[in-house]
Amino acid sequence: MIEIKDIYKSFDDKQVLKGITSTFKEGSCNLIIGASGSGKTTLIKCMVGLHEVDSGEILYNDRDFANLDFHERIPIRKEIGMLFQGSALFDSLTVQENVMFSLNMFTEMPNSEKLDRVNFCLSRVNLENVNKKFPAELSGGMKKRVGIARAIAMQPKYLYCDEPNSGLDPKTSIVIDNLIKEITEEYNITTIVNTHDMNSVMEIGDNILFLHKGEKWWEGSSKDIRHTHNKELNDFVFASKFFKEAMESNNL
Amino acid sequence: MLFYHLGKYVLLMKASLKRPEKWSFYWKEIIREMVSIGVGSVGIISIISIFMGAVTTVQTAFQLVSNLIPLSVIGQITRDNSILELSPTIGALVLAGKTGSNIASQIGTMRVTEQIDALEVMGVNSPGYLILPKIIAGITMIPMLVIVSVFLSILGGMIAGNLSGAVTQSEYITGLQADFKTILLTAGMVKAIVYAFIITSVSSYQGFYTEGGALEVGESSTRAVVVSCILILFADYIIAQLLL
Ligand SMILES: Nc1ncnc2c1ncn2[C@@H]1O[C@H](COP(=O)(O)OP(=O)(O)OP(=O)(O)O)[C@@H](O)[C@H]1O
Ligand SMILES: [Mg+2]
User: Predicted ipTM?
Assistant: First the structure.
């Protein structure tokens, strides 16, 4: 479980996050949605320590990450997996070396065991026979899958995904979404996904956090979102006419 | 502005010189970088070295108009210049262009494609992992390249002397054996090590703080070369003052 309390963050004199508080539970997919520039990426980056918050608490099972130093954070960092928007695979390493990276760096496992773990993770994301390939030789969807495999290699308790669907076709998007959902439930991970894809919201969102101009504007489940009277949220969710009509015709 | 960059540079160096998480893992990176910096630059260093020596010999011969000075001096001058200045400094300037731009664009690309963020999230000390192996590889391989360069430069001088008839082989060799001061060798090696540190660390710094996209990566790599070259010549002057 991750709790965030009253997170503030500004860049220079621009206030980007204005007191965000929320709780993210194990085994659930928590989605952060909001318009471009609303602070989604900033929030995630604060939570994993890529940005330092100005004030507030970030509790990973009651350990306050925000107020720890580099060394004290390492045990928590090892429990965090992250899928980046552009996959961020190490491009001088093969797929196998990418997935094995943190095992090599942080564990004393024998080679065969590491290899087993890598193969397990790759098969979990339905990739086979790509071990020796380099990231440049993979398609966008495959890179995302390798990214997921790398993120779960250390059996994380917390999984972050920044825009997992960006740049993917609708079908591949759904595959990736489902993969994230399955992995979350299978391993009881606390997952936080940052997206503007409304399909994902409806498909995999257990808990949804809507950010508007750096504030938590609305929070609830994907069922509630259809009946909300919150104007900004409605504008965001039903920005696509097609989506709105589809929802209405299905009488959801 | 200068102090801002200087401060940031010093902090980055401090972070990169931290004790590695796991030596065995760093070791592989060091070897990889050694191959890339050392083996990858032997070709270009060999070519420029031969020509440097050749040019020095031909031009020294041209400038020696007095009949009172023996021609063997040409060999001595080529030798001393190669050891003290040509091989370390010109070699380093060429390596700044090759290795420096390579390091800056490699690290810069990792920055803009979030690969460095990925390392950080895993809990890896990214300056250490990315920069330390490059510095170690640089300060071991670049002095070796300079030694190769010295030999080839002297050889180039001998060939050019022969071809142009400016100085015979035996006169040249007599010159090479005359009156050698070890301080030249010391100064040359000190230069090589300092330049190696400048090239690898400055280029890493430029790459590490790249912001934006592909365009900025290009800019960082240009800046890495320009700043390295200026600092190399500045260091050249300082070392000459201090050691000679
Ligand atoms: N490193 C930074 N320095 C300065 N300002 C920043 C930085 N990162 C983000 N910002 C600003 O913070 C605001 C929120 O950005 P953020 O990237 O979090 O938005 P987002 O919700 O992820 O948008 P998108 O959906 O487009 O990815 C923007 O106005 C942006 O200009
Ligand atoms: Mg974003």
Answer: 0.91
